[in-house]
């Protein structure tokens, strides 16, 4: 399977890593995403924030191919991808974190990661056992497992991992294809503060140079990781800029962050 998105060639060509142009999504008569345009440069880490029901996950569904937009365009490193199937978009270099329910519960950590790698190479799950001796894949799987700090759980079935370990495995499944652009939907949801802090360090360590989009409610994660923040309210992009610019934006203060003292925004935990 050919990968058409080469991050180095893309950076050299100055094409944005991801570009959304006048994106709309309607479900029946209800418009959920309204005219969103956004340009993300290679290597940027963009946090997408907004109240519950603002349309953040729907935006991810459009970018990752789960839903086709009603109108508008999506470009990945110079390739138009709107309306393409999720696997086509994945093979072009964009990955979305798997949900825990999409892990193989009875397979071990190692087998889950190896399956994700084989799938990325265009080989189905049925080949996994036949290819157990495939040295290169096994070597890369072990290396990824080490970076995820899951070596001790190598043989543990996914269903028996702790919640934080499952989320780490989920992150690893998304990274198995070595994507240039990674979408993470609330990666730290349900974690304790110390787990969140550990997981943020893990994300940063595993994604140097990658373009990251994170839907997140936890402001310590947003202000700790993001180089840019996009604020979505009622399906519209209210603001997009650096954390400082967004923090100072009166529209954001008024419409989303409300009474929270923005000078100490990074200290806030959950704003939604
Ligand atoms: N397949 C669908 N059909 C109809 N309505 C949908 C569909 N998917 C999402 N919606 C609606 O779109 C709106 C936005 O949902 P979405 O999950 O994108 O919001 P969100 O910003 O991610 O919210 P949260 O922060 O709570 O996860 C909601 O009102 C939801 O009910």
Automatic annotation (TrEMBL):
One of its GO terms (cellular component) is plasma membrane. Keywords: ATP-binding, Cell membrane, Membrane, Nucleotide-binding, Transport. One of its GO terms (biological process) is L-valine import across plasma membrane. One of its GO terms (molecular function) is ATP binding. Residues 18-259 form the ABC transporter domain. SMART domains: AAA (SM00382). It holds the Pfam family BCA_ABC_TP_C. SUPFAM superfamilies: P-loop containing nucleoside triphosphate hydrolases (SSF52540). It comes from the Bacteria. PANTHER family: AMINO ACID ABC TRANSPORTER ATP-BINDING PROTEIN, CONSERVED COMPONENT OF ABC TRANSPORTER FOR NATURAL AMINO ACIDS-RELATED. This is ABC transporter family protein.
